[in-house]
Amino acid sequence: MNLLFVCTGNTCRSAMAEAAAKKLTAEYPGYEDYTVMSAGVMCAGPSPASPQAVVVAAEHQCDLSQFTAKQITESMVEKADYVFTMTRSHKQMLDYALPQYSGKVFLLTAYADANPDAPDIPDPFGGSVEEYRQCFSVLIEKIASVLEKIKKSNEL
User: Which of 95, 113, 120, 123 is catalytic?
Assistant: First the structure.
């Protein structure tokens, strides 16, 4: 199973989502065959995760110290079984640019909560470490829900 998390620049939300998903899939049985990646729809080139994201990830035993942001590519989306975006606008961009894959592109919160009106994940970029902590907390909760839903759907 290949999961792809997408945000704007791939230095905050999707980087932390990748770290959280890797942690969760490593900790719980039944996720051994999962691969996790992240990318940005407007990545400014290879850059590190934001310093606040590195700090908050480390607080959760996740390492973003060597992380490098990546621009999303069609190949990434093609290889992914699920693509989870942080906002509706990210989903709309991907649906517009790559309509052939729209069936596997989901707003993370909407999929996790089974609620099409679920809120976007706010961008902590430029914010305090506390804002990043709040974001990470939401991400890990939603990703845990998503992983459980995927696992259950594959058992059917």
Answer: 123
pLDDT tens-digit map of 93-117 = 999 999 999 999 999 999 999 999 9
- Give residue limits of the domains in the chain: 2-155
Distances (CA, A) of 103 to 29, 91, 111, 118: 27, 11, 12, 18
Q: Pick the catalytic residue from 12, 13, 43, 62.
A: 13
Report whether CATH 3.40.50.2300 matches the domain 2-155. yes
Q: Is the pTM of this model over 0.90?
A: yes
pLDDT tens, residue by residue, 116-144: 999 999 999 999 999 999 999 999 999 99
Q: Is 13 among the residues known to form the active site?
A: yes
State yes or no: is 7 an active-site residue. Answer: yes
